[in-house]
Amino acid sequence: MAQVGQESGEAAVPSRSRLTPERGAALYATVLELLVESGYEALTMDAVAQRAHTSKATIYRQWLGKPGLVAAALRSMKEHHSVPDTGSLRGDLLAVAKTIGVVAETNAQLFAAVSHAIRTDPELASAMQECMFKPNDDAFGAILARAVERGEVAPGNPAVRYVPGLFLQAIVSRPVLEGKPVDSGYLSDLVDSLILPALAADPTSRPRTRKSS
Known about the structure:
Layout: H1 21-38, H2 45-52, H3 56-62, H4 66-75, H5 89-106, H6 108-115, H7 117-120, H8 122-150, H9 163-177, H10 184-198
Helix pairs in contact: 1-2, 1-4, 1-6, 4-8, 5-8, 5-10, 8-9
């Protein structure tokens, strides 16, 4: 069993809240700020407690250590975005590119700070899966299913399975390969130059009218 006060281990599920929602949000903001400033490995609970003007004991009562606290802070970033339905595959993909591009550009330093840690810390990886990867996969799944129904993508197209990961791969790889962050313009170019050709969808084509049931 994990002991209170350790810096690693599973996050605790508190029986009751020790912090008000407002103080919790402020604490999460502090954690995210420190992640950007110092990186995950150098982040300490002492630094969090000092900047958030709270005690380490209060933090440890709700999160057994750093992994649980950082995971909770990452989960607090999760925002609900409706899946776009513009009537065409290209329109839908460009709408997603705009949304993801804004998130990627705004949080580029944060993603860089946790990129190494999520490969070695299952709890952090789970937090990123929940707040970013799964919503991304779900949105693309709905968009591509509609495109197949409209006749824009052939059923069984083997490229479909790779589409959800392309944006996220670009977010990780472009800063390393080109020294530049990903933004909406870059992801929009990715849609027209790579994704649509792979799906055999002509950017200028008009989709077939959906048959009424």
